[in-house]
Amino acid sequence: MEEKEEKTSKTVVKIIDNGPLIISGNFIFQDIKRNIESNPGKVELCRCGRSRNKPFCDCSHKE
Amino acid sequence: MEERSLTNDRKYSNRDITVYWKPSACVHASHCYRELIEVFNPHRRPWVNMKAAPTDEIIEVVNMCPTEALTWKWNDMEKNINIDPDQTNHVKFRRPELIDDNITDSVERPAMVKVLVDGSVMIKGDFTLIHAGETLEYKDNVISVCRCGLSNRMPFCDGHHTKTGFTG
Predict the structure, then answer these.
(1) Mean pLDDT of B88-102
(2) What's the pTM value of the predicted model, to 2 decimals?
(3) CA distances, B134 to each of A13, B4, B129 (Å)
(4) A-B contacts at Cβ under 8 angstroms
């Protein structure tokens, strides 16, 4: 049986207190090098400026 | 009573127009104060002085704003209806279906998330923002979120990264 799954969920931007910026749902993501990706799933972006894996969070804010 | 706003939006008027200031959308491209410091002076409070330049000059500079942090409208609402979309940066004029606030726009546009080089992250389009226990719906809107950790207006960017040499 074939089940068709439509992924049309809204973009949700969640700002975690003293933590990262989590973006989920459908969205278009452009990184620093201007590479564009449609619907990358969930991304967690660094908000403390200390990540070694910018723009993504690597939990350096907990150190 | 002033309506509570997470994003601290403000508006400034002269006889002809109202300029809308949405600090959460500002990416500090600095066109406004480089072009017209008499009107847009970030070191002054209030930072916008609508009396300091003629209306057409203010409109010209507001239209340079790349993010809709600054937008404008004629005070005479009839003039807004017949405006040439090329002559304004106002989001409602570029999306004429939104001119009537009573029409609910049901089309969802996926948000665009742009990580700016050595700067903030800009989120544009339709999205839900969850922050400090509040859930806010943004429709065809823009916010600019701090990535350097030093903003005085958290979670939004206040341009601090330009003073501290933030990279990444």
Answers:
(1) 49
(2) 0.67
(3) 12, 12, 8
(4) 94
